[in-house]
Write a structure and sequence with these properties.
single chain; about 650 residues; alpha+beta; Alpha-Beta Plaits; 11 strands; about 10% strand; flat
């Protein structure tokens, strides 16, 4: 929390016969972020990775085929224990033999199942089309033998019929409606054969769908053809059941082998893709990557259990690596946040990935997001709705678990501030007001928003100076430091007025301001004059350097003040939230005076709350993210880092 997990660089050297087992250990533990040795000084010493393209291509083909047979037998993927005896060059022959046996057992059955399914789908589609055409009395044999007449049965969106009539009005034609299927009409489109091309273009523009119809014996009626199709469908369904029973037998017999084979091929492909990042000299492999410092002993123990004393492990701190100091190697970021705040890492990564030495802002972003959301969307009832909706997402939709947690936490924050405001679904008086009512204390709310803004801007500036020290900048930015001090003087005077209402400029205030200004000016000018001229190649002359810095100070100070004023939107959107409740209740009372108004009253209240939750909740979230990104994180966030990605299944 506040900083990413400390990482160290680990170099593992093993003999080539042990590389598969070493990789299996790393894949099982999921704790190493591999680096490409070609990009490091070791690459220049001959440790070059290799990609066995032909072997990888053979495994890719095997993997695709095994996936196809597993899908044909409806075998769901399972995660099994990672084997440690992977040897891609040796295993390929045995695995190809196993896949050949599976192909002979499953291939013919899969083809038959596919053929039956395709024919069944075709007959069902044709049967449905015949049912829709039954009222037309169409003779299918005559339809196929027409030479001088254009006649096509099909479906067209009902709303397009009038436009279609206009498009073919200049032709001798007939558009005969037969039946209606949902929002489309079944028609017979008739015209002269010579106008067929024009008719086709008009039908295409009207989104006409030509019906797929079966061939028919001479003189056969639609009912007879439909009866024949239904008979064939019944026969195909019986065949499909028999084939599925055989597939179930194969699934029972081959399922475990297919699951193991699928995992083994998958892991072997991961190994082969990862080897391009490994280094190899003669008969030794070198694996290099970042791991959390507290997991080094666990890695060594696992390698010792698997390989014995043959694996050599070297551990280097980040400060001891020349590539890091020179900027060649990036240290990846492994976030370290509490479970309930971890979903907010998505917002951090959306802005950028921090570098290894920076302040990791997720905790501050999460807490401030929830506080501002509660202040701008404070209502006990609507907060409970958000909490319930978030819990539903958390329990039912596992892909969106993070969003469910965020929504639940926003709901809790909204409930807390709703209790402080005394608001339940916009109704005041149901519970006591513990703090204040926004609409009755507008000026006070704006003062609070400005105070929060001062705190946010100040925290961002402090983080900026901390980052400058952590990233070993040559010096603190002089103009930025002086601008920050000027901002804090202005903020202190402003807060003094907001809290006390005092405008007088007494002796002690004037003395503090004058002394602070003189000290800051001396600091700035001293830094500028003591720094060698080559550090400022863009400006010639000390006077111009000081002038440039002075303009920068004024610009930064004005920007910080403007950023602070921007936080008034916290109060503005909270007031807008309360104002929407007034509009909803006014509309509900108007409807309530109508006949049967009691029902309309509560319908308006319910729908109004739904609209407020969806609309205002979205707008408030967007405004908070804007404040976080542009007013807070822009003060200190550098970005350009790399997310920690451990070696695991399908990570390459």
């Amino acid at each position: 929390m506040f900083r990413p997990v400390p990482l160290v660089l680990v170099n593992i050297q093993v003999e080539d016969q042990d590389i598969s087992r070493a990789t299996a250990v790393l894949t099982r533990l999921r704790l190493m972020h591999l680096i490409n040795l070609v990009e490091t000084p070791l690459g220049k010493l001959g440790y070059m990775g290799q990609l066995e393209r032909d072997l990888l291509a053979r495994y890719e083909r095997l993997g695709e085929e095994v996936d196809r047979w597993a899908q044909a037998l409806a075998i769901t993927p399972e995660v099994v224990e990672i084997p440690s005896d992977l040897d891609p060059a040796r295993d390929i022959y045995r695995q190809e033999e196993i896949v050949e046996d599976i192909r002979q057992a499953v291939g013919p059955l899969a083809e038959k199942l596919k053929g039956v399914a395709d024919r069944l789908a075709t007959f069902k589609r044709q049967g449905q089309n015949l049912s829709l055409l039954m009222a037309s009395g169409l003779d299918l044999t005559e339809l196929a033998s027409l030479r001088f007449t254009y006649l096509k049965p099909g479906l067209v969106p009902t709303e397009n019929l009038a436009k279609l009539e206009e498009a073919v009005a200049h032709l001798h034609h007939a558009l005969i409606p037969v039946s209606v299927a949902e929002d489309r009409t079944v028609i017979l489109a008739a015209a002269l054969a010579k106008d067929g091309e024009v008719m086709d273009q008009a039908l295409k523009g009207a989104f006409f769908e030509l019906m797929d119809l079966p061939p028919a014996a001479p003189g056969a009626t639609l009912a007879a053809v439909l009866a024949g199709i239904e008979q064939q469908i019944q026969g195909l369904m019986e065949s499909q059941e028999q084939l599925q029973a055989r597939a179930a037998e194969l699934r029972t017999r081959l399922g475990p082998d297919l699951v193991r084979l699928r995992n083994r091929i998958d892991l072997t492909r991961t190994l082969l893709r990862a080897r391009v990042l490994f280094g190899k000299v003669d008969h030794a492999y070198l694996i290099s990557g970042w791991i959390p410092a507290h997991l080094v002993d666990q890695l060594k123990e696992a390698l010792t259990r698997e390989i014995g004393p043959h694996a050599m492990v070297e551990v280097l701190s980040a400060e001891a690596i020349p590539g890091v100091r020179e900027g060649i190697l990036k240290i990846p970021i492994l976030f370290n946040n509490p479970y309930l705040l971890r979903p907010f890492e998505r917002l951090t990564r959306a802005y950028g990935t921090p570098t290894y030495g920076e302040v990791e802002p997720t905790v501050f972003l999460a807490i401030s997001f929830l506080v501002m959301f509660g202040m701008m969307f404070g209502d006990v009832g609507q907060g409970a709705v958000l909490l319930g909706l978030g819990y539903l997402i958390f329990r039912r939709f596992f892909r969106y678990t993070d969003y469910g947690i965020i929504l639940m936490e926003c709901g809790v924050s909204s409930i807390i501030f709703g209790a402080l405001y005394g608001s339940v679904f916009g109704m005041e008086g149901l519970i006591p007001t513990l703090w204040f009512a926004p609409l009755k204390n507008i000026v006070y709310f704006m003062k609070m928003s400005v105070i929060i803004g001062v705190g946010f801007i100040s925290l961002g500036l402090i983080f900026g100076f901390i980052n400058a020290l952590r990233l070993r900048a040559a010096r603190l930015p002089a103009a930025g430091l002086v601008a920050a001090l000027f901002y804090w003087i202005i903020a202190a005077l402003g807060l003094r007025y907001l809290l006390t209402g005092a405008l007088e400029w007494d002796f002690w205030v004037a003395l503090v301001v004058v002394l602070a200004t003189l000290a800051m000016s001396a600091l700035f000018i001293g830094q500028r004059l003591l720094i060698p001229k080559e550090n400022h190649p863009q400006v010639e002359g000390r006077g111009l350097q000081i002038l440039e810095g002075g303009i920068e100070i004024v610009d930064d100070t004005v920007r910080y003040v403007a950023n602070t004023i921007s936080f008034i939107r916290i109060a503005a959107f909270a007031l807008a939230h309360a104002g929407l409740f007034i509009a909803v209740f006014s509309l509900a009372e108007t409807l309530g005076r109508m006949p049967g108004g009691g029902v309309f009253y509560w319908v308006a209240i319910c729908l109004g709350n739904v609209v407020i939750i969806l609309l205002e909740g979205l707008v408030v979230s967007i405004q908070i993210i804007r404040l976080e990104y542009y007013e807070f994180m822009s003060k200190f966030f550098h970005g350009g880092g790399e997310v920690f990605t451990p070696l695991e299944r399908k990570s390459f």
